[in-house]
Amino acid sequence: MIDGKRWERLHKRVWDLLPWYVNGTLADGERRTVELHLAECLRCREEIATCQRLGETLQQTREIAPMVHPARLARLMERIEAEERDSRRGWRDALLAPGRGLASLARSTPPLARGALVVQLLLLVAVTGLFVRSPRQPAAPAPAPEYQTLSESAPAPAAVARLRLVFAERTTEQEVRDLLLGIRGQIVSGPSALGVYTVEVPAGPDPLEKVLAHLRAQPRVSLAEPAVGQL
Amino acid sequence: MTETETSLLHRIAAKDRKAFEALYHRYDRRLFAFILKLTRRADLVEEILNDVLLAIWKGAGGYDARSRPSTWIFGIAYHKALKAVARREPEPSGEPEAEPVDRDEPESLLARRELATVLGRALRTLSHEQRAVVEMTYYYGLSYQEIAEVMGCPVNTVKTRMFHARRRLREILPTMGISGSAGQEST
Question: Quick check: pTM over 0.80?
């Protein structure tokens, strides 16, 4: 038998490991240590039961994770594209807007490197001059962007689908927001006198039925139907 | 599976959009749930999720395969979420709203909803770090070593956070029948 102090140290070590014994991720050696200790420690056996109940409860109260909606990925790809274009344009602007870009570049560059930069820039301007006939007007408005950023007011997406939704009584605003977040939906009208909301979701490769099935599975949704015509 | 995810990350590092889309489809829901559980802020989830995915797109070249791809990805999500929450503190005021009760609901659903409310309230009393350890252990089934990697901290810190979280939950949860005994730990 081990003495009291060593036993307490072992008990503390095992006690700390119990959550990971319960979730089955302990290495073999540690698992064996825990099991040997469990055989002779009532407190740890009781704690195992508590850890298990906590784990089971957390699993049972699984929150709704929204379905993957194609619009979310499309928006993200737009943002990536916009950022990449912005960063490319940032360089171009720094080179083409001498007053602003170069001054700030010069301020943040050590003197020696500044000299080298000036030489390179003169060369660049000379080479560019061979190709560019009409000089660019720095004050000219930027050309219409070929992409759309998230901050711009979005024009109506090419394809949207409209749904009619009725929420269960006493559904909180937060729950409505979470549900809409999950389907990337926007309320376009409602509630009507009957409590019907018209909600617009971006149409994508995901069939509308899938969105509807997801909604119908939510306890807070009493009705989810495709909208035909206007309310 | 792990190999495929590693190779996806390598392809993403080479700016392969198809690979990014494939990874997105594997992780989108998991990350959404993870961030929501960690922050308990539905209003911030989407923004944080986008930041995480963007960071993966930009930083996949930095993945060195020392940890599992999922550990690396959840690590990014963990840090982005904590940063976003810190920027936006305080959380919307105190006690979460009591769940409205619909008398027509089946009893099991009702009980589950009540349990979720009490547990949610109990989890809110933990620090973000403690909550993250609890969720990653019980909900995502990560080992304490993996959690340490995700959080970027020593394994003993993970154990200490769990120790305090368990103690706190034990004070709050006995009424739920989750904490069965007085459960005295040695300190």
Answer: no
